[in-house]
Specification:
Layout (H helix, E strand, L loop, with lengths): L1 H21 L21 E3 L7 E3 L26 E4 L7 E4 L30 H75 L2 H8 L2 H44 L7 H16 L8 H15 L2 H9 L2 H15 L10 H32 L2 H5 L12 E6 L2 E6 L3 E6 L7 E6 L4 E3 L10 E8 L10 E8 L4 E9 L2 E8 L13 H8 L9
Parallel strand pairs: 11-13
Antiparallel strand pairs: 1-2, 3-4, 5-6, 6-7, 7-8, 8-10, 9-10, 10-11, 12-13
Helix pairs in contact: 2-9, 4-6, 7-8
Keywords: Coiled coil, Disulfide bond, Endoplasmic reticulum, Signal
Pfam families: PRKCSH-like, PRKCSH_1
Protein name: Glucosidase 2 subunit beta
Length: about 525
Amino acid sequence: MFRIKAFHLIFLFTSFLFYQLANTKVIGVAPAHQHLYEPDTGNKWHCLSNSEIMLDFDQINDNYCDCPDGSDEPGTSACSNGKFYCQNVGFKPSYIPSFMVNDGTCDYLNCCDGSDEYFSNINCPNRCNELNEKYQSYFNQIIKFNDKGLSLKEIYQKTSLNLKNEIISKLSQDEAKFNRLNNQLIHLTNEFKKIEENANKNNENSLFINDLNGLNEKVFNPIILNFLQLVGTYNDNFHLSYSNFFKLENILNNLSKNFDLSINDLAVKNSIDSFKEFKNNLNIINHINNSDLSNLKTSLANTLNLKNLTDQILGASNNNKLDVVSKIKHSFNLNYHEFINNPELAEIKSKIDNLKTEVENIQKEIDEVYNKEIINSDKKYGPNNILRSLSDECISETFGDYIYEFCFTGEIYQKPVNGKSSNTRIGKYNYDYEIIEENDESNVFGSIKLTFENGAKCWNGPIRKGVATIKCGIENKILQVSEPQVCEYHFDISSPIACFKNDDNISAANEKTNEKTKYFFHEEL
């Protein structure tokens, strides 16, 4: 019996040598890499990653691992870090780990042509055509499903385009209004300066001085008193609320510390948990004390008291008096023309102030809309701004004890089914749209990744965060929710917006996936 086995092994090894001699190609190496396995003039060859290690060419595939990178044994299982190329004629080429070569098992999952068992006593017929038929049937189903999603996606794209055009149109109208009002402002300002210059030439300095003495009593003192009265009233009310808050906090603290956990009172337990969550997220409030009010009063009095400046005018020479008055006007932005009997200047000054406010507000609104909606809009809303069409779209699904509400460009909330505790914010969309270029049996053309940050802080943990992976589907639906890390929630979402055409993916996505992706079938072949 031993002699028969020995004879069989000798026969197989001899057959292998004849196979190697008859084939100039090195077994286990892809055609594109065969040029790396050519001997030099001395019939020597060096390891691919270690050029300093020289071997005889016949040491390649001699079933002994000589190279640290395993490159000398592409066709055997001698090197643990090696890999074997399966040509898989009729399907797609692939690689398998070297330990699977000649292991007595037909590894049809990745080597459907059976070439990995060329030197074993097992027969592995080529089943690549069969596998290709199954793949094509599956792929065609995916394409049909994807086409349905694409038809729905077109509707979203049209809606997104209309929304973006509305924003651009509104910006154009606001910019036109801004230019019109700004031109009016420039015109009024120039007119004001001319009238003011004439008034300064025709009026005596005493006209300014006489009215400056009464500014404190007429304007500033009443303003200061009213303001301080309002602040005092606010402070009294705040202290009362602050005191009541601490009384309530002490009551809940005592309940939290002294509650007997063996008592199965869900209402009390939920209240304690909600209180802890609330307290953990509570910002510390610094109340206004009496010294703060005193310092504020002193500061106001020093800032708005014009007596010293008035004395400067009265004691200054005639040449310097108008300079001091000009400083007062610009320092305190006084509408002093109401007090020097020049109603024309006062009216123009009022119009200028109103126009300035309106122009500033329009400019602020334009900047906010432009920064949020126009700059890097593809990064925020995706190609063709597809997410705009879902800006008001929220979906929800129940998993276990919680209802998860997901808003595509808004927030994610976790809500208890029983409604006995408060809702928890998982995160808010950070306007970072990302296409994931992947290719597997459930997602041929890619998916969309959205990140939601700055959620509520976990009890004794980090800030909550949400990551949504959106895959092609014919409806907007939450498929699954998981928590792979503490307080980081992952959402699998289906939506037509994640259905792509074959040439939709950014960069060379299809070339990348065709080269690197393996398809796995879990059924027996």
